[in-house]
Design goal:
- The chain has 23 helices and five strands.
- It has helices spanning 3-7, 10-13, 15-27, 40-55, 81-93, 99-122, 125-137, 140-143, 150-170, 173-189, 198-204, 211-243, 254-263, 265-276, 278-294, 300-323, 325-329, 338-350, 355-371, 389-396, 412-417, 426-430, 432-440; strands at residues 402-405, 421-423, 443-449, 462-465, 469-473.
- Helix 4 packs across helix 5, helix 10 runs parallel beside helix 12 and helix 16 runs antiparallel to helix 18.
Length: 479
């Protein structure tokens, strides 16, 4: 059988088959604890919130983390939709660290299917197929199996966008309610997801949709916008000021943000040429972008594609500036813009007349994308010792005892102790004044992970020691 004949088989080109295939590939290791090679800190903070819903207070308006020292840990975060779903899973099945991975993977897979449906509806089936595969093998591939709200929020918003268009077209109330709820929870989960709603503006300009439906949809979305504004700009600052712990990053000013982006310009550029679609994917995007603007427009959808991308780029630039240096530091900040890049690159591949060449290029991009992300299927072995923290501490300490551990700014160590307290560097722990100050706040124990370099000298009684950790008591009454 020729390659072209195999490629043309209906089952292989069925996007549902491809989405399920990539879903099954990413299922491997879904049960791993969140000690990935990258971004364990972001995942464990999300799990902290979910676990505190289960064990402390299930009020969704008061998310709690564990690294706030003697404070309650109640703080402002993204609206904890994902965290609450993890909590609901735990209510039914008992606590496990990996539920969030599965939830995000399921929602992101569904989101990629609706991404396909949107492109197919307004452009072409070939364009939709290429763009969806490019999206899946982008950094969407690894972040759709992490306990993080990035692909989760974008996926909810994409599905909400589809249902909003279905309401404009079919006037069914279920589409109206569904779209508003999905858009609300998608953008509440992470504000930058709002940029995937840009196509809605172009749909509103289409005179084929009833003006009445447009007015009703707009009126229905106004309360959603108000709720999002209330959470991020009223409630989050209130939680921070009331409970004294700042956790959520609200961005920086425009002037300062531009200055930071310039200072981190090489890192910012890397987010596009590597982190987003990887090298070959970015090259496909760049060539497609150039071709789109050079080619004489023979079809109206090319003009729409240009305007859609430029509008997305403009809106995303605002988020980039507000993020400042964080955009250059964190590879997942580019995720809301990846669908726009995949849209352009997919169009370019769909314009190639020779289908064999187009599919071979798609396979090449996919292979490189997956090869650059295969590390996500392994754990950071130096952190496996963390899994024993809780067992050791349960034998020597009380669950409610405050602790300090040498995890520096990364709260992963603290998370696996299943305690509240502080995560500090070895240098901070070695400072007697620092230890005295937190001891007065109720800290009772020091835990040292011996894998970290520059072990501090501790002048307190040692209670437990093995090859990976040491436990010291700050309270003689605990001995």
């Amino acid at each position: 059988m020729k390659i072209a004949d195999f490629i043309s088989k209906k089952r292989l080109l069925d996007i549902r088959f491809c989405i399920v295939l990539f879903f099954l590939i990413r299922i491997y290791g879904i049960w791993f604890p969140p000690i990935d090679v990258a971004h364990s800190w972001r995942q464990v903070t999300g799990n902290m919130v979910a676990r505190n819903f289960l064990e402390t207070d299930a009020n969704i308006f008061y998310p709690q983390v564990d690294m706030a020292g003697e404070k309650t840990g109640i703080t402002g975060t993204e609206f904890p939709v994902l965290n609450y779903l993890i909590y609901l899973f735990a209510l039914v099945f008992g606590w496990n660290d990996w539920y969030g991975r599965l939830i995000v993977l399921i929602v992101s897979s569904i989101g990629s299917f609706f991404f396909y449906k949107l492109i197919k509806k307004f452009f072409s089936e070939n364009h939709a197929f290429f763009s969806t595969i490019l999206l899946i093998v982008s950094n969407w591939f690894i972040y759709s199996r992490k306990i993080m709200p990035d692909t989760f929020s974008v996926s909810l918003t994409i599905i909400g966008l589809w249902w909003a268009i279905m309401y404009l077209e079919k006037s069914k109330i279920r589409y109206l309610i569904g779209s508003c709820l999905l858009i609300l929870f998608g953008v509440l989960s992470k504000i930058p997801a709002v940029i995937v709603l840009i196509p809605l503006g172009f749909v509103f300009l289409d005179k084929n949709y009833p003006i009445k439906n447009k007015i009703i949809l707009t009126a229905s979305l106004v309360p959603c916008i108000a709720i999002i504004y209330w959470w991020y700009f009223i409630w989050v600052p209130y939680l921070v000021s009331s409970f004294g712990y700042w956790h959520y990053y609200m961005g920086t000013g425009f002037k300062h943000g531009i200055s930071e982006l310039i200072s981190f310009k090489l890192d910012v550029f890397e987010k596009f040429y590597f982190d987003a679609l990887k090298y070959t994917g970015f090259l496909a995007f760049l060539l497609s972008f150039m071709y789109l603007f050079i080619k004489k427009e023979a079809r109206n959808n090319q003009r729409i594609l240009k305007l859609l991308f430029l509008a997305g780029l403009f809106c995303f630039s605002v988020f980039m500036i507000k993020s400042g240096r964080n955009f250059g530091v964190h590879s997942y900040y580019v995720i809301p813009f990846v669908p726009f890049m995949a849209l352009i690159a997919g169009w370019g591949l769909s314009e190639i007349k020779n289908r064999k060449i187009a599919f071979l290029l798609l396979i090449l991009i996919g292979m490189e994308g997956l090869a650059n992300q295969q590390h996500d299927f392994s754990l950071k072995t130096s952190r496996l010792s963390m899994l024993n923290y809780e067992n050791v501490l349960d034998k020597h300490t009380d669950k409610k005892d405050l602790i300090v551990i040498n995890g520096s700014e990364n709260p992963t160590d603290l998370y696996f102790t299943h305690r509240k307290g502080w995560s500090m560097s070895n240098m901070e722990i070695q400072n007697s004044e620092t230890i005295d100050s937190i001891q007065k706040l109720g800290c009772k124990w020091i835990i040292l992970n011996l894998h970290y370099p520059d072990k501090p000298k501790i002048n307190y009684p040692i209670v437990y020691k093995d090859e990976v950790m040491e436990l010291y008591s700050l309270d003689s009454a605990c001995l």
